[in-house]
Design brief:
This protein is α/β, with parallel strands linked by helices. Helices cover 27% and strands 30% of the residues. The strands form seven sheets. Strands 3-2-1-7-19 form a five-stranded parallel β-sheet. The protein has a five-stranded parallel β-sheet with strand order 9-16-10-11-12, with helices on one face. A five-stranded antiparallel β-sheet has the order 22-23-26-25-24. Strand 20 and strand 21 form a beta hairpin. Helix 1 runs parallel beside helix 9 and helix 5 packs across helix 6. It is globular.
Length: 420
Amino acid sequence: MVDAHRTFVIVGGGLAGAKAAETLRAEGFTGRVILIGDEREHPYERPALSKGYLGGAAERDSVFVHEPAWYAGADIELHLGQPAVRLDRAAKTVELGDGTRIQYDALLLATGAEPRRLDVPGTGLAGVHHLRRLAHADRLRGVLTGLGRDNGHLVVAGAGWIGLEVAAAARSYGAEVTVIEPNPTPLHSALGPELGAVLADLHREHGVRLYFGTRLTEIVGQDSQVLAVRTEDGEEHPAHAVLAAIGAAPRVSLARAAGLELAGEPVGGVAVDASLRTSDPDVYAAGDVAALHHPLFGARLRVEHWANALNGGPAAARAMLGQEVVYDRVPYFFSDQYDMSMEYSGWAPPGTYDQVVVRGDLGKREFVAFWLCEGRVLAGLSMNVRDVAEPVRGLVRSGRGIDAEKLADPSVPLEGLAGA
């Protein structure tokens, strides 16, 4: 089939969708490319929403993947502010909220994820926030400014990446911050207790009040305004605003209704093969919504981070064009909190590793930590140490047993260990 007569539809106006559209044109596809997004904003990158833009270090325009004029120049047809409400696989059509039906030859689902909601009394109060979209960040930035000016209190429910980054941003404005987390340390499911304790110390040093092993059970308010929160241990904490940062759920309603195979819990998402193809050979998925059986770790993973959208969108686009694609990138993310910069590569949730090896100084927060299982490196995290992400990925990819003493010795180059 000649490209010019084919139509590729991308459902999802985030980074994965925008990079997929860009890749289709870069690879020479001359057919129609239609990008559907339920937000009115042009596609943007999400990390700045809890980092630079929220903290005031970056301008709003810096978050966009491309300037608006780029899409017309690349002949990308945009349907913004229009949700896709129905996928008819037999007819190969997508129906939009206004009733428009769009025919496709190949379809990419890049629908992302949405914040999980607190299921407690008081969540409908005006001072309860989530952070997923640019509009959320716009609103929250104003709230943090006001809290800092008035010595107000922000309560963050959840000590994951979003919760900690917003806590750091709030402290930079001068707001009082309390973080409530049911696990014993921050980022417990991502970093385990060993490194989670390092993050706890960092935030305590910056004046954040941390409460572990308890959950938020009620948000107390009056005249629609937040006044306090209560926790299951019987405590009450002052609050003028609350951020619900208890994770995100993949947006699979379109895929589920269309009968596509979904990954089981707790992973969730749309099940895809190594080429990011779903159970329908003409439908692909990428980004936060895609659940890939990763060959390096022997498990199905769904990665909710910037790098996965950045690289997964283009990989899916190439697969849609018929190219041979094996998407097996090592999961990667980064975080900036206060004066700490961190990069993580790999996958090592609690229960998968038997040893943590540290190269550097934990006390100074200048180190590289490695999670090992039977001597094999599953993941590595650098904190305020630059230019080690690539060698860390090499160690993860190698699958080799690594001498722990050499791994901990800063005089031994990491680059040589993968091939040792």
